[in-house]
Amino acid sequence: MIKKVLYAGISEDISDLSTKANYFKNRILIITIFASIFFIIQTYINPTVEAHIQYKAYVFNGIPLILYCLAFYGSFREKHFISKLILLITANGQITAASLLMGRNTGFDLYLIILCVIPYTIFIVERRLKYIFSLFSLLLLVAMEVYFHLWYIKPIMPPIQATIGYLTTVTLVPTILLLIIYDLQKTNIRIEQSLMKERKKSENLLMNILPVKVSEELKSGKQVIADDYEDASVLFADIVGFTKSTANVTAVQVANELNNIYFFIDDLIDKFKLEKIKTIGDSYMVASGLPQNDSNHLENLIDFALYLREEIKKLKFMNRELQLRIGINAGPVVAGVLGKRKYIYDIWGETVNIASRMESSGVEGQIQISSMLYERVRRKYHCEKRGEVYIKGIGEVETYFIIYKKSCTVCSSSF
């Protein structure tokens, strides 16, 4: 119940500045409501107060009590700005009226010091109003002190009660101020913890989208991220018969099936320490040797391709055996992040284009490479010659299929 009242009209996440201000406003409203009730009860049980003074005390505390309740109702209706105005105007009027009624000997006007501070807690966003209300309360306090010095007002309380009232005031005012400061610090700590938690989420999300090295460069403020790699390897894998298999199924079913497959491949990517670049529909793009240089990048990628080719058969796609068409190439590439929104780490260059063509012109269940790459891998991998294949933009290219890795203990350094 208390929690519901404190968070009236706001969310429980107070990391937002306006939400934080409204949270403080709700707390202050609760205090003012209980304070007004307290003063009404105190006046009622005090036998020394004259009837006409007692009547005025009821009015000076009863009307503000109604207004504070109205302001709180405004909080529940999310009319926070109006609620703040009612709170501060009413509080200033209540303290001023009570001070004039009871006289200086109670020190009641010192509560205006608190009202000089409160605008800084509830008008965090509306800066002008913060200064206006703070200055207004300060001027009221000065005016009250000047008035009490120039015109003596007969105390309505006996000296002992007035002294007790004064001591209560000078004790409560600094105590309330300290509590406000403590509450501010406590709330700021909660906000910082919430922001750190959200920052951690954002960083983790960024790490999932971009390589660690690239995300660190982005966070440091680097505008253009593009690196040349003299030698890196690229793989494209495509699901065979995807269009035919998905002709009569819903988009949600297709997405779920693809998601299961990509989850499986993502885990393999981590196992072989490769870099996932992107997925385009049913096509999966992987790179090795970037953004961190790796002398064994090509061997790692081919080992991954061989393992993937066999393991993927254990999965089903639309209740059919899953087969991939895979193309690999290696050579110089450029990698980086372009644009200013929806960041994606991408690679480009002739090496990437040829890898893509090796996949698109490939054969079901095979890993296709060009003759140039064959010369680099033939000592470690058993390959079969396919023959010449027409590659768009290049022409006739001699290609090979990688069949398996040779079981040699010492291989040449042709990689």
Descriptive overview:
This protein has 415 residues and is α+β, with helices and mostly antiparallel strands. It folds into 2 domains: 2-204, no CATH class; 216-405, Nucleotide cyclase, GGDEF domain (Alpha-Beta Plaits, 2-Layer Sandwich), CATH 3.30.70.1230. It has 14 helices and 10 strands. It has helices at residues 2-6, 17-45, 51-76, 80-102, 112-117, 119-122, 127-150, 159-209, 212-219, 242-245, 251-272, 297-311, 350-360, 371-377, and strands spanning 225-239, 275-280, 283-288, 316-317, 320-321, 324-337, 345-348, 367-370, 381-391, 395-405. The strands form 2 sheets. Strands 1, 2, 3, 6, 7, 8, 9 and 10 form an 8-stranded mixed sheet that branches. It has a two-stranded antiparallel ribbon with strand order 4-5. β4 (316-317) and β5 (320-321) form a beta hairpin. α3 packs antiparallel against α4, α4 (80-102) packs parallel to α7 and α11 packs across α12. The longest helix is centred in the middle third of the chain and has 51 residues, at 159-209. The protein is rod-shaped and about 115 Å long. The two termini are 70 Å apart.
Query: What is the global morphology?
Result: rod-shaped
Number of domains: 2
> What is the first-to-last residue Cα distance?
70 Å
Contiguous runs where pLDDT drops below 50 for at least 5 residues: 409-415
Question: What structural category do the secondary elements indicate?
Answer: alpha+beta
Main sheet properties:
8 strands, mixed
Alpha plus pi helix count: 14
Number of strands: 10
**Radius of gyration computed on alpha carbons:** 37 Å
Secondary-structure element sequence? HHHHHHHHHEHHEEHEEEEHEHEE
